[in-house]
Amino acid sequence: MLAGAAAAACPVRADPGLPNCTPASAGFSVERLRRLDAFLDADTRPGPHGPGHLGAVVLLARDGCALHHRAHGHRDLPRREPMPLDAIFRIYSMTKPIASVAVLMLMEEGALALDDPVERHLPEFAGQRLRDGAKPRRPVTLRQLLTHTSGFDTAGAEVDPQAAADLATFARRVAAVPLAVEPGSRFRYDGINTDVLCRVVEVLSGRSFARFLRERIFEPLGMGDTGFTVPAAQRHRIADITSVADDGRRLLANARSAEAPGIALRGYDSGAGGLYSTAADYLRFAQMLLDEGWWRGQQLLSPRTVALLRMNQVGHLDVGNDLGPGEGFGLGVSTVVDVARRGRLGSEGAFGWPGAATTYFTVDPRERLVALLLMQHLPRGLPADPPRPTAAFHNLVYQALER
Questions:
Q1: Residue 50 reports pLDDT greater than 60
Q2: 3-class SS of residue 63
Q3: 12-88+229-263+278-399, which class in CATH?
């Protein structure tokens, strides 16, 4: 093992719920995996060309076994504590695929259909208008919320999500704002869509969104370190979240939980970006999707539903800069539709999603692979920001495959 990588033996809290195996037995080159370790060691080490990322945890699984679980760099900004394998991260938009699964569970139970108008379940959305006062040709549907084609505009002062105390209040605020465009006519990635869906989950299940996730997803999967807050006794495990100053200095991000790690990231339980989690916990969720809805003998979703989740639903629309070349969008995840155009190693049909603070996961059914990279840096788009490592991470994982 290279210097900077954590011990291979995983503490109990870092257990991804899969048997361990050697990289070679899973079809990976040990020598080529060292390139991944070397890259992350260098990326998390202060150097002459910038501060790099503070720390990282990486977890790879193939054929149902965990083959590479490493921590790099530091957990804290003073760089006194090595990053632990069981570090807790703000996963922000990696919450969205979990919210999508909650919606699809209700679909499987007959409580909703994807093409239901939102107003059928949330009456406050009845009678919505476009900005010019005209009535839209068709009302917003649940599918359009899942695919970010609803016509809602980017959350701003009119909605002010941080000021909403609960999902019910948030949904009422969204319902009062005119639509920017005809529903279904434009793809624009926006967390408004997901949080309205979370309110639908509450109404149809009769439970808070947090309780639904806990009882229907986290407890069955054994995701004991995932939630909208972190217990006080576990907050020492939370990785510091960083940004950069105008002069290039590394500092704590101007984020709700930077100075008070473990508090709720928003005023309500946001399925758009509110969860804390660990690499080991999120691997359980991703592995369930790879295994077509199954986890340790429990079926959370039908294989047909998982297939629908990862199908490209927006092929008829211009996705602009919200997705990369060669990518489409399913029901809350991006999906690879053209490997050559994408310009990264990988497979058609692989799917996943990132989080704002440099977290990333991908599920590749063809290679039977799950790959996770968790960091905590909020980029500002400045030259001093370290380059996003996701493309390099992706290529370094795939180049290590021997079969």
A1: no
A2: coil
A3: alpha beta
